[in-house]
């Protein structure tokens, strides 16, 4: 009988199984961010400019997402969306079973929904650090508001936002591990399924742990490098 | 030429501008004096649409706009004819001195980059910053930053440059270099509307001086009219306060 505490060959094999879930985790992260960034930015603008109604909706949305565990958000959306779609499909006589929808689509929506709320506050605080005079100077030399934001304000706000954006991205990557709850074959679920066969859970969890750790460290380093590049103007020495 | 008529502006219940009229001929330097809170900044901001007036018109000769109801296009047109030098410089922090000057030309005026950079270098040379093209604002002193601000305005070759207390955020020892730069561009025939507390500049450089108080133009005339033979009591009182010793005190 094998008395060693952990099954090393299994540990190694399963590491690669877990690793094979990285593309899905990254895909969910990237797509969710691509959806969440513009929504978060737009809502941040409505918050800053105190646009009536949308401003209030944004506020409620943010506190709703902040005040509930993400796993509950997943359960709520995962059961609510099919219900809603079923109704729509029935109404328009669309022959498609909502239960055939790839869980990836749910993951995109759920994580974008969650991340956008985080980003509203990230962008709002970053934009508010840029002096109003920057916009006025841009306007005075003939830039439109859109040009002023694109060329002057966003580049400066981004430098402030990057550390928080990095945290949000890393949190999102980690949160994709909850994808197992909607049968999303990402890192966690793949390794767990492999472990089910011989009950090698400890090995699987160690693998999962290491894969997320590597992933998050790499992402953090990328953000650090990006921040350094973007903030050159702040620390340039004469 | 710029003719401003009947500018009104309130913030909430506070009426800050109560019908201001102003005419500036091409090539003139006009200085606006007045106590704090008299509406000088607000007037300049209304001309450049950084603030929407409640009433009033601006006539640039070939362009006449309603300061209240101007369309987006008209606002952009007015901004092509005007440039603004800010009290706090407001240089674009993420751009070098050269990029700061070129931004309005390349993006606002859609000028080819080559040409824009050529004009921008000339403008920076003019304000004595030939060796600072690639410096970011954080690397420049206040005086240097304000001179970049002036170069940014000059490069646009506007009909008129609006200056809002360009030296009042500066350390005293840096005021001189900025005033010198302003005198230099005045000598070149730039039309300038300058809000300042620098009485020396007003006396030496201004063609006309306008004294504002309480949201109206109280008195205007040549520097001699205002500084030597002021007619209005409010003007005299203001001058006594800002130039003590040169006017007799009344008990
Ligand atoms: N955005 C604003 N909202 C509310 N009140 C304002 C605003 N801008 C200016 N004011 C008020 O308008 C009045 C005139 O301000 P303004 O800045 O035009 O005066 P000023 O003549 O430039 O004074 P200073 O010499 O101190 O610069 C002040 O009482 C100021 O508090
Ligand atoms: Mg002022």
UniProtKB/TrEMBL annotation, chain B:
Pfam families: ABC_tran. It is found in: Cell membrane. GO terms for molecular function: ABC-type amino acid transporter activity; ATP binding; ATP hydrolysis activity. InterPro entries: AAA+_ATPase, ABC_ATPase_HisP-typ, ABC_transporter-like_ATP-bd, ABC_transporter-like_CS, MetN_ABC_transporter-like, P-loop_NTPase. GO terms for cellular component: plasma membrane. Keywords: ATP-binding, Cell membrane, Membrane, Nucleotide-binding, Transport. SUPFAM superfamilies: P-loop containing nucleoside triphosphate hydrolases (SSF52540). It comes from the Bacteria. It is a peripheral membrane protein. Residues 2-239 form the ABC transporter domain. PANTHER family: AMINO ACID IMPORT ATP-BINDING PROTEIN, L-CYSTINE IMPORT ATP-BINDING PROTEIN TCYN. This is Amino acid ABC transporter ATP-binding protein. It comes from Lysinibacillus composti.
């Amino acid at each position: 009988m094998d008395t060693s505490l952990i099954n090393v060959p299994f540990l190694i094999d399963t590491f690669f199984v877990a690793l094979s879930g990285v593309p899905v985790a990254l895909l969910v992260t990237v797509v969710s961010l691509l959806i969440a960034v513009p929504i978060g930015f737009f809502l941040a603008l409505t918050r800053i400019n105190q646009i009536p109604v949308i401003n209030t909706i944004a506020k409620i949305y943010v506190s709703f997402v902040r005040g509930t565990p993400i796993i509950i958000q997943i359960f709520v959306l995962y059961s609510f969306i099919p219900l809603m779609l079923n109704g729509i499909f029935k109404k328009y006589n669309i022959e498609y079973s909502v239960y055939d929808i790839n869980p990836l689509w749910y993951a995109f929506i759920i994580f974008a929904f969650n991340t956008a709320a985080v980003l509203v506050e990230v962008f709002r605080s970053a934009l508010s650090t840029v002096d109003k005079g920057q916009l006025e100077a841009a306007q005075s030399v003939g830039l439109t508001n859109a040009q002023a934001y694109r060329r002057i304000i966003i580049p400066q706000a981004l430098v402030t936002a990057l550390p928080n954006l990095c945290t949000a991205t890393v949190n999102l990557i980690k949160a994709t591990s909850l994808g197992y709850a909607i049968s999303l074959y990402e890192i966690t679920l793949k390794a767990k399924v492999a472990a089910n066969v011989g009950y090698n859970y400890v090995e699987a969890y160690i693998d999962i742990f290491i894969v997320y750790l590597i992933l998050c460290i790499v992402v953090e380093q990328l953000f650090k490098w990006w921040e350094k590049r973007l903030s050159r103007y702040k620390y340039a020495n004469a | 030429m710029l003719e401003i008529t009947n500018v009104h502006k309130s913030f909430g219940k506070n009426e800050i501008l109560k019908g201001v009229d102003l005419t500036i001929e091409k090539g003139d330097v006009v200085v606006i004096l007045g106590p704090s809170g008299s509406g000088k900044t607000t007037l300049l901001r209304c001309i450049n649409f950084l603030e929407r007036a409640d009433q009033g018109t601006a006539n640039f000769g070939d362009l006449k706009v309603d300061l209240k109801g101007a369309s987006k296009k008209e606002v952009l047109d007015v901004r092509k004819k005007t440039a603004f030098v800010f009290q706090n410089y407001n240089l674009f922090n993420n751009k070098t001195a050269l990029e700061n000057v070129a931004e309005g030309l390349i993006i606002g005026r859609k000028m080819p980059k080559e040409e824009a950079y050529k004009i921008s270098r000339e403008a920076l040379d003019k304000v004595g910053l030939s060796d600072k093209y690639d410096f970011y604002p954080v690397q420049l002193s206040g005086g240097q930053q304000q001179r970049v601000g002036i170069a940014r305005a000059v490069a646009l070759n506007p009909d008129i440059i609006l200056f809002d207390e360009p030296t009042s955020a500066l350390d005293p020892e840096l005021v001189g270099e900025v005033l010198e730069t302003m005198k230099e561009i005045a000598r070149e025939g730039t039309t300038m509307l300058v809000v300042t507390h620098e009485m020396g500049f007003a006396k030496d450089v201004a063609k006309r001086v306008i004294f504002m108080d309480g949201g109206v133009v109280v008195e205007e005339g040549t520097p001699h009219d205002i500084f030597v033979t002021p007619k209005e009591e409010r003007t005299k009182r203001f001058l006594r306060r800002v130039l003590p010793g040169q006017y007799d005190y009344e008990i």
